């Protein structure tokens, strides 16, 4: 299995760098004592960005790694792993 399940690495890195910039912006906002509601809006944007990255990876995992494992009759183990990840992802 590929570690990123054939995900476009460049796209993933671009998204994560954007999120990294948002987090740096959050640090600056706190340091500059910006309005609390503005900080909360930015936190929500960071969480949304991370969720989108996670869902993109999850989609590629299911349609790549999981699908291949099922075809190779190794589905039970990878489905159990997927369910464990989903349980943590939705907490």
From TrEMBL:
<dbReference type="InterPro" id="IPR038390">
    <property type="entry name" value="Metal_Tscrpt_repr_sf"/>
</dbReference>
<dbReference type="GO" id="GO:0045892">
    <property type="term" value="P:negative regulation of DNA-templated transcription"/>
</dbReference>
<dbReference type="GO" id="GO:0003677">
    <property type="term" value="F:DNA binding"/>
</dbReference>
<dbReference type="GO" id="GO:0046872">
    <property type="term" value="F:metal ion binding"/>
</dbReference>
<dbReference type="InterPro" id="IPR003735">
    <property type="entry name" value="Metal_Tscrpt_repr"/>
</dbReference>
<keyword id="KW-0238">DNA-binding</keyword>
<protein>
    <submittedName>
        <fullName>DNA-binding FrmR family transcriptional regulator</fullName>
    </submittedName>
</protein>
<dbReference type="Pfam" id="PF02583">
    <property type="entry name" value="Trns_repr_metal"/>
</dbReference>
């Amino acid at each position: 299995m590929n570690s990123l399940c054939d995900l476009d690495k460049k796209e993933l890195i671009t998204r994560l760098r954007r999120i990294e910039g948002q987090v740096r912006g959050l640090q600056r906002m706190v340091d500059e004592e910006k309005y609390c509601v503005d900080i909360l809006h930015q936190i929500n944007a960071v969480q949304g960005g991370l969720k989108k990255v996670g869902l993109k990876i999850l989609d590629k995992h299911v349609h790549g790694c999981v699908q291949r494992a099922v075809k190779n009759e190794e589905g039970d183990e990878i489905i159990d792993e997927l369910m464990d990840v989903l349980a943590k992802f939705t907490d």
